[in-house]
Amino acid sequence: MKRFPVFVVYALLILACVFALFPIAWGFVTSLKNESEVVAYPPAWIPSTPTFENYANVLSSSLPFYLLNSILVAALTIILSLVIAVHAGYAVSRFDFRGRSTLLYLILASMMVARVSNVVPLYLLSTRFGLLDTKLVLVLIYSGWQMPIAVWLLKDFFASVPQTLDRAAQVDGYGPLAIFYRISLPLVRPGLAAAAILIFMFVWNDFILAVTLTSSESNRMVTVGLYNYVGQFGIQWGQLTAAVIVALLPVIVLFGFVQKTLTQGLTAGAVKG
Amino acid sequence: MAEIGIDNVAKTFGSKTALRGVNLTIADGEFFSLLGPSGCGKSTLLNIICGLEAPSGGRIFIGGKDVTDVPPKHRGIAMVFQDYALYPHMTVRGNLELPLKASKESRAHIDRKVREVSTVLAINEMLDSYPRQLSGGQRQRVALGRALVRSPKVFLMDEPLSNLDARLRIQMRSELRLLKERLGATVIYVTHDQAEAMTLSDRLAVMSAGELQQVGTPIHLYSHPGNQFVASFLGDIGINMMDGIVEGGGSRGVRIDDAGPVLTLDASFDGIVGRLKKDAPVRVGVRPEHVQLHRTSVPGAAEGTVVLCEQLGSEQHVHVRMGKYTVVARVAATADFRLQQTVFVTFAAGALRLFDKATTVALHAAADTVAA
What we know:
The complex is a heterodimer. Chain A is mostly helical. Chain A is built from 13 helices and two strands. Chain A starts with 5 loop residues before the first helix and ends in a 10-residue tail after the last helix. The model of chain A is unreliable at 265-270 (pLDDT under 50). By secondary structure, chain B is an alpha+beta fold. Helices cover 24% and strands 33% of the residues of chain B. Chain B is built from nine helices and 20 strands. The two termini of chain B are 19 Å apart. The interface between A and B is medium-sized, with 22 and 32 residues.
């Protein structure tokens, strides 16, 4: 097969990186400008007098509190959906029970319903159960929405754990639960990390559900908080971009933590190969 | 006592039959191999003995006790898997400790056993390494170690050496046999490699299509194969097989093909010569080491042409074209044969094996066929 010259590959990669990073870079540059420079035309690529005033304003506002809300809801959603998904994923991967395929496709089908079409029914349900304007309602709905993808993802990760390890553990004296918790589960850590990242990103970025089901300041999520900078008479670009950059930090930190787990092949050395 | 009894064990997977009524007794302290090609049911039988598979019929006895419904951990067995099956997220020490922890042994006992086993297998330098950091041979030792720490009555080994390279496999083969002598345990060893089965086993069973073909000592099976399958499966370069026709009428002759040389049956066929029908079709088998090559014609020899010489250093395999057959002879490495050379072929006395062409069963000694 003919290969692309290396410089073409690098040029394409650099182009892709620029395309992906430009909005973030522009946002960062904007966040360092003062109010008059933000709206100046032609725009300045580099701020003439970089200022952290926008950051100071953002950090002294309620945004850090909204960040904590989002982190809390995301963490609880990850825990709840993964606790259910690891068991379901293991079951559909390891046990051949009646209706297994149907169940898997039903789970998949639930992901195909346009989420926005659920918002009104969910609002009504939340009201009926007295859960409106609570963090719990967000955790429950986000978990319900994200669990199917986690089940499918983990199913494949469990399938990649050699069954001979289960058999070895069985001979070594482990029962089914010990085999699951002590052998299979630790080996799908990359899958858990991948699922956690997906769930976190979803929760972190959701706006419509957060704005519909929560209204009080104490339950406000960061996406809704960012919307505060879009006012009736204009947008506070400097503070908005500073707030966006601050809101990006937890995502970057999380990626930093799980990147190694995501990429390492934990099963290397388990069996021949 | 760890005598193993396999009583009429059968196994089906849906409509597919993996084992048909297997009966076998393996003595305490015996090194017993289950030998056969892929898909013959040998691993299924091992899994049933282990308790990882339930038989569709029949019973399993270990030490006289019916263990058919007993889970693996309570059978007093340990298993070494073909692909090692080491727990990749645990160190070598963790792997060795796991069976003892699972049976809730004391910390002192665990430490002592791990120390003992790692010394025996020379893996004490790598106790804190992870499986991915080890070579194939080292992983195999750890897998053996994990079986050893439990001090089982029976070791079950499912092709444990098949992932190693040829030289290491031979080295580990010797170590395995020495280890078995040292422990005195019963070993059931599954392999498709006839050389492994022959060199390691006290006795072996050859399997095909879910059935036992023959059971016996390696030399007995090699010398007196009960049927054509066993004859063909054992031996590193395979037995030479030809079609023959019994001359009958009191003659001891078997003619190879219609017009080929006539081979004379020796005294070992005394018991059956009278029963051989005239013109009965048979298959004639002769091992390569019993094929003799002569440069000049000798009485009863068949003429052939050398078509290939394989020099192995310790010996030489000479392929001789005889009519429609190519016969392989195992001769001395120093013997000088050239391609296209005309040679005269005879077979050593007592070396011929006859098989019924229709049933493939050996005609020379029906009594030594399947006998568990």
